[in-house]
């Protein structure tokens, strides 16, 4: 009897902790690129540490180019993306 209850509790806890792994996520945001435009850090870039030391990876890539009229141009010519 105790083994049966223990098995039931173990199964319930396993399902409770693993169900978020199998949840269906919203994929409408999958092709969204979020940009933070601003100057480089004054201390510069350290390739050993990267741009950030937190839990989010921050990548630096010249995907955009600013024109003289302050408009933006996408510089990734290989993708053929048109805004």
Automatic annotation (TrEMBL):
Which organism is this protein's natural source? Salmonella enterica subsp. arizonae
Which lineage is the organism of this entry classified under, starting from the top rank?
Bacteria, Pseudomonadati, Pseudomonadota, Gammaproteobacteria, Enterobacterales
Tell me the keywords, alphabetical order: Signal
The molecule here is called Nickel ABC transporter, periplasmic nickel-binding protein
Signal peptide residues are 1-23
């Amino acid at each position: 009897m105790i083994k049966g209850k223990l098995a039931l509790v173990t199964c319930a806890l396993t399902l409770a902790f693993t169900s978020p792994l199998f949840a269906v996520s919203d994929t409408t945001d999958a092709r969204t690129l979020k940009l933070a435009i601003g100057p480089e850090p004054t201390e510069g870039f350290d390739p050993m540490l990267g741009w950030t030391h937190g839990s989010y990876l921050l990548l630096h890539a010249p995907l955009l180019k600013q024109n003289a009229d302050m408009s933006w141009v996408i510089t990734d010519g290989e993708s053929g993306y048109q805004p």
